Amino acid sequence: MSDYDLIVWHDKLVTGIGKIDEQHQILVNLLNEANIKLTPNNNAKFLEEITRNLLSYALYHFETEEGLMQKYDYIEDSDTHIRQHRSFSAKVVAVRNEIKTGIPISREDLLSFLNSWLINHILNTDKQFAAFLLASEKYRSDNQF
Questions:
Q1: In whole angstroms, what is the distance from residue 48 CA to residue 52 CA?
Q2: Buried residues in 71-100 as b, exposed as e (16+ CB within 10 A)
Q3: Spatial CB neighbours of 119, under 8 Å, sequence gap ≥ 6
Q4: Of 5, 36, 46, 47, whose CB count within 10 A is highest?
Q5: End-to-end CA distance of the chain
Q6: Using one digit for the tens of pLDDT, what is the confidence trace for 11-50?
Q7: pTM value > 0.70
């Protein structure tokens, strides 16, 4: 039924920051659930619900990451990272607004955008941020086990 393979959580997606990895796994599960439930003929109400749930959790996750950036003085690429968060949010809001006004989005376009954005963001931007945290003396001392 699905044109897209489900995202399989694997070691390459692990950042090493427990809270971030847990939230990424939830986002992956939400996308996989959308992949399974979406059909070519979903109604607007269902598409709105899926995008609302994804956006809601993504915003919570972005808040977590941005809080860590601030707490541990991540200055290097924080502007780029935050811009990517805002761009993703704006795109999902735009899609939601189009759905509300009767402009449909295809299952393929929605899944393609969501899946590629999340995987690319984790593998590039989030991994870079995680490397900074893991090298930070302050982060390591706050997170000793």
A1: 6
A2: ebebeeebeebeebbeebeeebeebbeebe
A3: 7, 13
A4: 47
A5: 45
A6: 999 999 999 999 999 999 999 998 998 887 777 888 888 8
A7: yes
Which pair of tokens denotes residue 16?
Answer: 């090493």
3-state helix, strand, coil in the chain (%, to 5): 75, 0, 25
Amino acid found at 116: S
Are 98 and 105 a contacting pair, CB within 8 Å?
yes
Tokens, residue 77 = 């690429």
DSSP assigned state of 121: I
Whether 133 and 68 have beta carbons less than 8 Å apart is answered as yes
Per-residue HEC secondary structure of 60-81 comes to HHHHHHHHHHHHCCCCCCHHHH
pLDDT in tens, 117-128: 999 999 999 999
Query: Which of 73, 71, 62 lies closest to 125 in space, CA to CA?
Result: 62
CA–CA dist 69, 84 (Å, integer)? 14
